[in-house]
Amino acid sequence: MYNWDFAVVWSYRWLFVNGLWVTLAFTAAIVLLGLAVGLFSGLLRLSRLAPLRWFSQAYVELFRCTPILVQLVWFYYALPILTGIQMSATTAGVLALSLYGGAFYSEIVRGGIASIESGQSEAALALGMTPAQSMRRIVLPQAMKRMVPPLMNQSIIQLKNTSLVSVLAVPDLLYQGQAAAHDSYRPLEIYTVVAIIYFVVLFPLTLLVGRLERRLARSD
Question: Which sequence ranges are marked TM in the entry (predicted)?
C-alpha cells in the first residue's frame, strides 16, 4: 500500500504560490485579449460584406477544429520559422490561447447579437441612428445580458487551458508542480495538491456563473 506523505508539499509552497500567480496573470491576459478578438470576429460574422464573413468563419473553424496543444506547439516552434520573428514561450502561449479562446467567444457574440429581434435595430434606424449607433446603443447592451453566462463559462475553460502552457516551460502552476514532483519523488501528493488548488480557484467561479444565470433568468 502506498504511504501518503503530504508533509513534503509544504517545502514547495512558494513554487505553488508563484505558479498560481503566473496562471492567474496568464488567464487575465488571454481572457481580455480573447474577448477583444471574439467581439471583433463576432461582428465580422454578421457583416453584410461576404469576404469579411468568410474570413471570420475561416478563423473560427480553424481554431475550433484543431487541438489547442497543437496550436501552442505550432505557434512556439513553427511560427518563428515562417515569419523570422522570435517569440518567448509566454508570448506564444498568450497568442495561441487568446486566438483559440477568441474563436469560441466569437460564436457567443454572434449568437447573442443574432438573438435580438431585428425589429429593434430597424426601429433604431427609423429614428435616425446609424447602423453602428444602433449596434452600440440598442443591440449590444441587450445581447450582453444574454452573453455574460456563456462568456464566463468560456473564461473558466480558458483558466483550465492555461495548464497546457507548461509544455512550453512557462512557469505556471502545473509546471511548478511538475518541478516539485521531479525533485521530491512524491508525484501523487504534489499533483493532488495542484488539483486541489485548481478546484479551490475554479469552484467558486462556477458557483458564481450558476447564480448569475439564475438571476438573469428571473429578470427575463
Answer: 20-46, 190-210
Contact 156/204 with Cβ under 8 angstroms? Answer: no
Kindly report, residue by residue over 170-214, the tens digit of the pLDDT: 999 999 999 999 999 999 999 999 999 999 999 999 998 888 878
171: Cβ contacts below 8 Å, ≥ 6 apart? 18, 19, 22
The CA-CA-CA angle for residues 190, 95, 64, to 5°, reads: 90
Please provide the average confidence, as pLDDT, over all residues in the chain. Answer: 90
Domain boundaries, the chain: 25-174
Report the alpha-carbon distance of residue 104 to residue 28 in Å, rounded.
16
Q: How far apart are CA 100 and CA 37, in angstroms?
A: 10
CATH 1.20.120.520 fits 25-174, yes or no: no
